[in-house]
Amino acid sequence: MVIKNGAVAINPLDWAKQHVGDKKWEWITHPFILGQDIAGEVVEIGSEITRFNVGDRIIAHAVGFYLYGNRAAEGGFQLYTIAREHMASPIPDSMPFEKACVIPMGCSASACALLQKGFLALDYPAVPPAARNGQFVAITGGSTAVGSNAIQLARAGGYEVVTTCSRHNFDHAKRLGASFVFDYHSPTCEADVAEALKGKKVAGAFAIGPGSVEFCVRVLSQLGDECRKFVVKASFPWPKDEPKNDEEYWEYMRWVDGWNKSVSEMAEEAGVETKYVEGAELGRNEVSKVVYEDFLPRALATGLYVAAPEPLVVGKGLEYIQEALDLQKKGVSAKKIVVLLGS
User: What value, to the nearest 5°, has the Cα angle with vertex 88 and ends 160 and 157?
Assistant: First the structure.
């Protein structure tokens, strides 16, 4: 179906691909249209579309970036985007597009980590939320776009969430459903999280943000047999000083390979399994239906699930996309960079 985009949001993968060119995600070739988070109005539907009609207001995870999508028509940074029915959800009339567009990529990535078989495989989220099941899950980066969605999905599935973020974002994480929030700047953060989880039935950890994989491995290694010692990795380290040429880029990639090896060795020694998650893989399995068809429509309509973090609108029009990419690259706290489109 074709969506007239009212607003789009920026993700790190967007500027990362722009920066590395053909050296990574090499199936995408120039010229190409990036962008994954979209919110807008359905203007055209295919003959097999059953859940939506022309005029519906929706969010969608545009999957042109991924190998199973891999076409510019499914990129988000344009006025009209082709979206897939099973990766879209209706939104309430009261939810403006600039708020709604912060949801899709963060929700998809979280669902891939938390719900997919072969990953944490948690119980599916429900409306109303499932009764607390006595299990805990650790989620770092609770104020990030991915963390904000992960907290809500886990809580709706009946889990107690232990998360980390800056102290000034504690209220944000708690509003989303976190039971325990710890300041990742604190020198005792690791010990504090381990203490909160000690003796509890722990379903695993979702590591979001720099240093989070090592942090989660160390925490889980301190827990007993009641803990499933499994860390899902959402990100990899980006260099402080960007590679300026091919030689520096490949030097950085060799460093990443070394980091992966050292983290794997550290985890193996601690008896902890780690696994990297792709943010849109649910589009190829049953989890997309669970999230975008069974859960999000009712959860958004009832207010159980909220658009988080808050949008930071850079401007209106495609001419603001590059400015938005540059701003996201610098980093934001408990915000998601958004560009308004449409009339």
Answer: 15
Calculate what percentage of the chain has a pLDDT beyond 90. 82
Residue 179 makes CB contacts below 8 A (sequence gap 6+) with 136, 160, 161, 162
114 and 122 Cβ atoms separated by less than 8 Å: yes
Q: Are 219 and 190 in contact (CB under 8 A)?
A: yes
For helices 212-221 and 246-270, the axis angle rounded to 10 degrees is 10
Q: What is the value of pTM for the model shown?
A: 0.95
CB-based contact 331:126 (threshold 8 Å): no
Residue found by looking up tokens 């939506």 in the block: 52
pLDDT at position 87 over 90:
yes
Q: Which residues contact 182 (CB under 8 A, 6 or more apart)?
A: 162, 163, 164, 189, 192, 193, 196
Residues near 343 by Cβ (< 8 Å), separated by ≥ 6? none
Sign (positive/negative) of CA torsion 183, 189, 193, 198? Answer: negative
- Measured between its terminal Cα atoms, the distance across the chain in Å is 20
- Which residues are CB-contacts of 198 (< 8 A; sequence separation ≥ 6)? 222, 223, 224
Q: What confidence tens digit (pLDDT) does each residue in 27-65 have? A: 888 889 999 999 999 999 999 999 999 999 999 999 999
Nearest to 149 by CA among 199, 110, 179: 110
Q: Are 122 and 115 in contact (CB under 8 A)?
A: yes
Residue 296 confidence (pLDDT): 98
CA–CA gap between residue 9 and residue 77 (Å, rounded):
9
Other CB atoms within 10 Å distance of the CB of residue 255: 12
Token code pair at residue 304: 């159980």
Token pair in block for residue 41: 């109005």
Q: Which residue type sits at 55?
A: G
**309: preceding bond cis by omega (within 30 degrees):** yes
Where are the alpha helices (H) located in 63-179, listed in sequence order? 97-100, 104-115, 145-156, 170-176
Maximum pairwise Cα distance, the chain: 58
